[in-house]
Amino acid sequence: MFFWVFWYSYPPHKQQQRDPQWDNRQPECILPQTVIIHSSRSSQSSSSSLTTTLSQSNSYIPPPPPPPRKPTFTARLRSSPAAMLLGIIPLLTLGLGFWQVYRLRWKLALIDELEDKLGREALWLPGRINVDKLPEFQYRRVLAQGTYLPSQTIYVGPRTYDGVHGYHAITPLARPGGSTIFINRGFVPKDFCPGGPKYAGSPLALERTGGEVTIEGLLRQSSTRGTFVPENEPEKGVYYWVDLPLLSERMGESAQPVLVDEVYEGHLGLVAEKLARGEPVGRKAKVEMRNQHAVYAATWCVPDWVNLSGTDGL
């Protein structure tokens, strides 16, 4: 037995006799064909072997699949816990921004309501005040008549007034036929407060219980202690904030936890003269409320807007 091996191809002079279907096939499908002729005793066996070899050599062999690509840095980042956290943070800040917008609308509506009350005619306080109704009359102009108790004056602070350091003087007002309430008489410079170099000759230190006075002011509520505000020390006469329940309890049953901020409408020249003499200067008749919600809303929303605008080109 012997084998003949040769490459099966058409000679150049026979290219005109090619099968059209063979010529129209894609180039990558035309592969070198190998014909193996087996020499055997039987011609039928040789013919069968040749047919099988040609059939196998003409079959299409697809190219091997490309190797799997490694995940890029961006893909790994998107699937990491840090990416999930970075995706939650913008939603959280956006929610806080909308919350501040809601608070801003609420604060503006409250200021409008208080300014409306401020513009109404002043009311005389009744002999006995319904404390539960005080929130409805906050910032309402009221009139009260009575006698100051200067020996019970307390100084709450420190406070500032046009850059001057000092305290607010709060004196009980005993009303005939009524309860005792508390009057915030206004700002007093630090030098004219207890412990100051000019306190001994100050008007409040020399004040004695005298005749009746009529006070016009704004009805206020008891303040609450802030997070970083120390506790009051009444045994030492140190007050950092106005604790009306505590003050009324120390005054006895005749006192009610009611505070009136005395109003002073004098011009700046008169204010400077009163401060120089150590006289208390009352507050202005206007609504004074802290309103920083617009700033907070911008603080939370602007970074989200910048991030969204920066991703438009991605």
TrEMBL record:
Membrane protein topology class: Multi-pass membrane protein
Keyword terms of this UniProt record: Membrane, Mitochondrion, Mitochondrion inner membrane, Transmembrane, Transmembrane helix
Keyword Transmembrane tagged: yes
Source taxon at top rank: Eukaryota
Pfam family, one: SURF1
Location within or outside the cell: Membrane; Mitochondrion inner membrane
Ranges of compositional bias, category Pro residues: 61-70
Region (Disordered): 38-70
GO biological process, one term: mitochondrial respiratory chain complex IV assembly
Gene Ontology cellular-component annotations: mitochondrial inner membrane
Membrane-crossing residue ranges in chain numbering: 82-102
Compositional bias (Low complexity): 39-59
InterPro entries: Surf1/Shy1 (IPR002994), Surf1/Surf4 (IPR045214)
UniProt record similarity statement: Belongs to the SURF1 family.
Function: Probably involved in the biogenesis of the COX complex.
Record protein name field: SURF1-like protein
